[in-house]
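Narrative of activities, Objective 1.

The group set out to show that a structural description can be obtained from nothing but a protein's sequence at a throughput compatible with the screening campaign. Below is one input-output pair from the validation batch, recorded exactly as produced.
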Amino acid sequence: MADYIEVHVTAGDRDEAGEICRAVVGRRLAACAQVVGPIRSTYWWEGRLEEAEEWLVLLKSTSARFDELAARVREVHSYDVPEIIAVPVVAGSADYLAWIDREIASGS
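Output recorded for this entry:
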């Protein structure tokens, strides 16, 4: 059984979020991408406290594909340091996890 992950990426606008989704799912580095937003982010950047409207992209994938997925996100992302964080999926329905395996394997 693969180690499943959900990868979180924030984008500066809805169009960029959609571009990230297409870039990653199109190459079968993730089986699914969802966009949530807008969200409000507060963070430190270059010594200043910043606030921005962003869009959250949730990508369903496997640990084995993370490095390729992260590299592809960096290729299309506009940020100097994009958020690319993988969170382990500790449980999921067997049929959904099998679907992730099938969709990602189709791109190998």
